[in-house]
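Hi F.,

I've been meaning to write this up properly since the lab meeting, where we talked about keeping a consistent format for the predictions we share between groups. The idea is simple: the sequence comes first, exactly as it goes in, then the structure tokens exactly as they come out, then a line or two of notes. No screenshots and no reformatting. I'm using this chain as the first example so we have something concrete to point to.
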Amino acid sequence: MDTGESGNADCFDDLTFWWLFFGMFYQQLKKRQRAIRYNSILTADDRVTDFLHGYWERIFKKTHMTRDCFVRLSSIMEQTSRLTPSRAVSVEEQLMIFLFVVGHGASNHNVQETWQHSGSTISKYFGIVLEAIFNMSSEYIRAPDINNVHHIIRYNNRFYPYFQGCVGAIDGTHVLACVGGKYYLVDSGYANKGCFLAPYRGTNYHLRDRRRLGGDRKKEQFNYQHASLRNAIERTFGIWKKRFPILRSMHQFPLDKHAMILVACAVLHNFIRMDPASVAQDC
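Output, unedited:
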């Protein structure tokens, strides 16, 4: 019995040794692979400096912002303690990682290569910046002032006074909140009632159609102006989607992040619009 128990103990010790050996070997292999993969001669600080102080177009292509606009955003985030630097990642780098993802629809793998960080580090700081910008929504996203006519309508005799009650355009599924005397322009897929103002059904829409003979000219004229105004409003959404390609494909993120990404991109869009130089370059 003693001999058997001693043999079992020795066998157990051998297994423990080999498990420890292979565990240590695997960890060393991972470190070596990481060293080989993230071996750029540029440090993270070097990359940030290169973007901030290099050719102006370089930072704009990465962030859709001018240098001054980016520095202002970075200062706001740090001064209000929304973002704090870590030992390995500065506030500027955290922001650039986030902007690179939302502004280019970049995958985690591509961002790893650019910034020489592990996938877990990229995901961590993307989430931190996402939450920080999402929490700025009350400052940079405002509901339209329903008491004043929008300048696109007010100073265009094609639209005013005919659409002076219009507060926006809808193309999708929304929760309805109705204010008396105000309405949203909608396409012919919606019923023309309540807060929705739809075009006349079965009536031509476009200028080339209006030149044709026949039909109700008043209804055609209304439809044409209706489409023109709705397109003018919805053009903003086109610019928004072009600026942030991530909005066209968010499948790589969990569902609970989708709404936060939408809001964060809206915040950034409005922040960029406050910088005329960034707007001019993005046209």
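Notes:
The two ends are 86 Å apart (CA to CA).
The first strand starts at residue 166 and ends at 169.

If this format works for you, I'll send the rest the same way.

G.
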